[in-house]
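ok so I'm stuck.
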Amino acid sequence: MRPVRHLTSNIIDFGANPEDASRRIVPSGAKDEISLAENALAEMQTALANELSEKKHLAALGLAVAKINHDLRNMLASAQLISDRLASGSDPLTRRLAPKLVATLDRAIAFCQSTLTYGRAAERAPIPSRLKLHQLVAEAAEIVSPADIGRIPIINSVPRGFELLADNEHLLRIMVNLFRNAVEALQGAGPQPGLAPQVRVSARREGANVSIEIEDTGPGIPPMARERLFDAFQGSTRLGGSGLGLAIAAELVRSHGGDLIILDSKPQNGATFRIRLPDRQAVAAD
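replied:
not stuck anymore, here's the structure
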């Protein structure tokens, strides 16, 4: 009965969150009847997850286009900042910034190409790999607020040896969107009285999860805005904002089987977002 119970528990687990690719059954590869059922279930889950994703995005075509525009604008805005600095003259800083300009433009081009290739804006399933979080945070910070250009410092408090299993490109986009959200809030409203403008990133392991926190000293999130904070076009708290950055970040976190929440912050302390991801590195080690 153990294989049957495995099938039953997987169906229940998948049904609770079809967007989480890690919940799809992995067939054993054997040739018995139960294994055939596993293969059929795996195909059905993949088809159902793809169908749900496509229906969701086709029903909100305007949202899909806006999401593409939002991420491309972020990437190209960073490229523009760097290119402006490069245009000011030739010095050692130029040699350091030039590769970052090229990498940012390459990322924008690749994002555009992948969208055109698949003809839809559905996010691909995460492809987890072992990555060093400190280096990824540093890369995201350089994209949003480049050294010697950005006015809002992003302090990287993640331990240098901190590793996890996650999709590198997805996690980079999550960080860029959250960093940009915090930086723009600080640029628009300034820091809390008596605090310096800054964004701080930290990470730790909590049981079976990895917890990443992004904390800023900005105006914080009004209580009325918290309920729909991660809904596209609904969650922006600043004038002119689309509210897409947090929606994109939350969607990518969910695809990893995790969640993104805003913590209850103390008065005059800014805002703190927490990303919680399953610690698949610890599971792999076991």
